[in-house]
User: Fold this.
Amino acid sequence: MAETIYLDGKFIPKNKALISPEDRGFNFADGVYEVVKYYRGKPFRFEDHLDRLKRSLLEARIDFDELDQLEAVFQTLLEQNKLTDHEAGIYLQITRGSNTRIHSFPEKISPTIYATGFPFPSNWDQLGNGVKVITAEDIRWLRCDIKSISLLPNVLAAEKAREQDAVEAIFIRNGIVTEGSHSSFLAVRNGVIYTHPISNLILPGITRKVVLEICKEGNIPIVEEGIPALELQNMDEMLIVGTGSEVTPVVKIDDKLVGNGKPGPITLFIQEKFFESTLL
Ligand SMILES: Cc1ncc(COP(=O)(O)O)c(C=O)c1O
Assistant:
């Protein structure tokens, strides 16, 4: 049976979906998105995702006022695709809509809403053994706080990582570590956790927020300051976190081992607490 997707108010088979070639998502990457993970049939931190989506829409000046219907839409998608018993993900994309291609907003326009469900299992190999990452210059724009579908710099960096047998590229802007191409980045030194502060230079990651809550409860001191790239060599532990990455230990960065090359104790503590919180 063909996969069912949601497009502009209808649940339809994916192979019947029609989107205009003049959709501004296609022409200008003029849109925003969210990815939500479902654990045992329940969405993880749904309100946080909804709040971030609202903010992305506001900042992008896209009018969409049916946010309160999304949870039911996602639920139907999971049911129709028999994903309720699995770890599943929902991808939601809202573009400004389609009209004649002009850069400024066309007068008549209504957003294109697309959502799809997919199996989203945790990667226990990476979670258990840790991963390699590379560093890459952060060539993105100055509104990385908007979850925009305009992801070419992220795509290029992620591919560069893959070519070097790494799973993520960690961006460096003006000598300061910002975040990963599709994850947030944190590091540990002498029992203190460091991560870039919330600003226009990073996405306000929901997993990052959960991790900082765990640190607070576990009395792990937090310093929200950009880490100088030159300081990376002095870090005892590093982790990439995100809806898909969950809490993944970093054991190698470029060609250098992190600590002793094994996931560190603070990372493992956070990872354990993170998975506990997904069961609540
Ligand atoms: C650039 C970037 N930073 C951080 C994250 C992590 O955000 P979240 O924890 O909300 O998934 C993502 C996730 O896709 C991302 O693309």
Summary: The helical segments are 24-28, 46-60, 70-80, 124-129, 152-163, 206-217, 265-278.
